[in-house]
């Protein structure tokens, strides 16, 4: 446990007791952890490749003295016992295609402005790209990023690789042994000044979203030591991959 930890409650510690052993399945090797400042709001934008990403990412943030607040699909908040953990730990439910769809962004903005760390997987689910590269992301991350720009809250991009070798959503195979290396790379605060003062419309939201995810993709390429694809994967162009995916929202 970190020596200097953001104030937390009972359910945060319960979650930590479960997530730390889960994260220990892999050997996490982080770079850029110094960019996760010990106080103040942070929007952490990450890729999503495995069901064990949230425990690994949560422990990474927690070891840096912060309590992560995840944007997670609302169905997780209805699961027995687990709903108390994620709700008590401050996670934010995402209600898609409902009248409450915008509530998650409102709650995330409030958390950021109240000095919390909000973790978002902009793809909304485990990537459907068979090779594990990021797919076309949703624009909610851009709305949060523009709000961060307005209120001087840092936005960090991060890539993670290695968790898919432990648990693969496509093959449904769980391979905890031998322990696999998990790499996490966190960027310095992203310079979003080029977007300041522009009207927040669909064009801008898509531009900001792709800008952030391109950074994540480039960081992932560096971790994998191989070139990234030129375009983001889209299940609309690859319907068969959508049928195979078993991913859930992060």
- Tell me the CATH architecture: 3-Layer(aba) Sandwich
Structural domain tally: 1
Q: Structural class, from helix and strand content?
A: alpha/beta
Q: In the CATH hierarchy, what is the superfamily?
A: Glycerol-3-phosphate (1)-acyltransferase
**Gyration radius, in Å:** 17 Å
| Mean pLDDT score | 89
How many distinct helices? 7
Number of strands: 9
GO molecular function: 1-acylglycerol-3-phosphate O-acyltransferase activity
Protein name: 1-acyl-sn-glycerol-3-phosphate acyltransferase
InterPro entries: Plipid/glycerol_acylTrfase
GO biological process, one term: phosphatidic acid biosynthetic process
Report on this structure:
With 250 residues, this protein is an alpha/beta fold. The chain has a single domain, classed as Glycerol-3-phosphate (1)-acyltransferase (3-Layer(aba) Sandwich). It contains seven helices and nine strands. A seven-stranded mixed beta sheet has the order 1-9-6-2-5-3-4, sandwiched between helices. Strands 7-8 form a two-stranded antiparallel ribbon. Helix 1 packs across helix 3, helix 4 packs parallel to helix 5 and helix 5 crosses helix 6. It is globular and about 50 Å long. The C terminus is likely disordered. One of its GO terms (cellular component) is plasma membrane. Keywords: Acyltransferase, Transferase. GO terms for molecular function: 1-acylglycerol-3-phosphate O-acyltransferase activity. This is 1-acyl-sn-glycerol-3-phosphate acyltransferase. InterPro entries: Plipid/glycerol_acylTrfase.
